[in-house]
């Protein structure tokens, strides 16, 4: 099967004919933001800093990371943004997640929007903050862009909802998403697959597929011959990531490969997976680092042989894009958006979701590749990720913020879609 990447090839907003060079005042509403570590938070952080680097006045509304709340300046990637941190509570089923107070979100959103007077509001989910800022922006006639990073199905593990009620709860969650996203002038998702999934679940059409994007130049590929076999996973250590499948696969690999596995990230399943690694006899071949700095993360990519992503619920997977930018072949579950990044037999392999035997077989294929074939996989990873450059993503969103046509051929404009 042939897969094609979903590049953002909109022309640069500063050079496109008729483009409006005027800096914008942008309000980003995020239910999860730095220091949180997840795909949505990382995208919002890089979006905010990237827009600020282009001269825009960027404000972010997000839950406070602790007890202190209020408005102050924060710096990301060397860029200054204004953060409006809302009083938040800890969501105790989760190991670190905090949320803004639901019954105060309308009042807080109204106050912040009236203070900031943004040209556009860009919300990242419908949960609490997105619902508040989108509703208040709609009342004031402010342009709204909404991006969905959420699958309600993934949130069930952090709820107390009994299994027999979970399908009902998922339906309610998607209905709530529709109520917020229907307000937006433009709705986006990170991939075409994620956009199609969202359309089916909400009944909202004309969804733009826009990559979250990464700064590929920040990562360091290494083409020197490997002296060890090291498999890397990066992400939340949570149930839907199916890290248990990866550990079982590592235990199935032939002893002569002496394969090591490194799990980078934290989460509620950390202790359970550490115990599983011991039970499987992996011993010191399995390393769980917990959360690490950006510098340590980049080094982990560079020193690895292959990246593994067993998750079945990726709307894009920033970690997989970072692996590609580090020149790694990838073995990933054939699920959701991962096939957009992993082209089977070209820069890695896809395996049957949940099947540790198939995952082990695909990992072994990569680990036994001759150096020249491994290098070919690595070069293809670098080629694929080039279509996901953060600058293209920023330019595309600038067009949406201004209500300008989006010319990216991978992003179908509303006029060409059927409702």
TrEMBL record:
UniProt domain Glycosyltransferase subfamily 4-like N-terminal: residue ranges: 37-217
Domain Glycosyl transferase family intervals: 225-374
Keyword tags: Glycosyltransferase, Transferase
Keyword RNA-binding: no
Pfam family, one: Glyco_transf_4
Highest taxon of source: Bacteria
Region called Disordered, residue ranges: 1-21
Protein name per UniProt: D-inositol 3-phosphate glycosyltransferase
Organism of provenance: Herbiconiux moechotypicola
